[in-house]
Amino acid sequence: MPDMTDLEKQLIREFFEASARLLDAKIVRSDKLLGDIGEWLCVKHYGLVLEKSRRNQSYDGWIRGLQVQVKVHNSPEGTNINVGDPEKYDELIVILGPKSWLRVSKTSQTFHVYRFSSKEVQTSMKRNSGYYYCAKKSLNNRPLTFITL
C-alpha cells in the first residue's frame, strides 16, 4: 500500500482543523457537517429555531411555529434526497450545494434553496417503495432562492 503524500496528510489535517473551528463557532453541532451547515444557513436566513434534541429525526426545528425538515445535497453524482416522512413535518427546505447534480438552474450562486409544504411532498415525491425522495423533476419550475457566501 502506498504511503500518504505530504499533500494528502496536510489536507486531512486542514479538514479536521476546519471542522473544529466550525464547531467552536457553533456553525455545526455534530459530525454531520453538511446537514449542520444547512441547518445553520436556515437559522441565519429564515429564522429557523433548532430542535434542541439532535435525536429527533422527524424535523430539525421551527419557523413561525411550523415544524421544518432541512435537507442538503452536494453530491456531483446521481443521487436523490430521502426527505423523510412529510406527515412528521410541516415544511421541507432543500438546499443544493455548489456541486449538487440536482441543480436545475444555471445560476452560479453558492446555494440553491427550495421550500415545499408537507402536502406538496406527499403528492409529488412519493415513490413506489413508499419512501419520499426529492429528484430533479421535483425541482423543475419551482420557486428558487439563493444563499451566496
Can you put this structure into words, describing what you see?
This protein has 149 residues and is of the alpha+beta class. The chain has two domains: 1-31; 32-147, Trna Endonuclease, Chain: A, domain 1. Helices cover 30% and strands 22% of the residues. It is built from four helices and eight strands, in the order ααββββββαβαβ. Strands 1-2-3-5-6-8 form a six-stranded mixed β-sheet. It has a two-stranded antiparallel ribbon with strand order 4-7. The radius of gyration is 17 Å and the shape is globular. The mean pLDDT is 94.
Key traits:
149 residues, alpha+beta, Trna Endonuclease, Chain: A, domain 1, 2 domains, six-stranded mixed sheet, globular
Brief write-up:
With 149 residues, the protein is of the alpha+beta class.
- Strand content bin: 15-25%
H-E string: HHEEEEEEHEHE
Strand order of the largest sheet: 1-2-3-5-6-8
Helix content: 25-40%
Query: In the CATH scheme, what's the topology name of the largest domain?
Result: Trna Endonuclease, Chain: A, domain 1
Shape type: globular
**Overall pLDDT level:** 94
Main beta sheet strand tally, sense and closure: 6 strands, mixed
Distance linking N and C termini: 39 Å
- Return the structural class: alpha+beta
Number of domains: 2
Question: CATH architecture of the largest domain, please?
Answer: 3-Layer(aba) Sandwich
The CATH class label of the largest domain is Alpha Beta
Low-confidence stretches: none
Rg over alpha carbons = 17 Å
In total, the number of strands is 8
Number of helices: 4
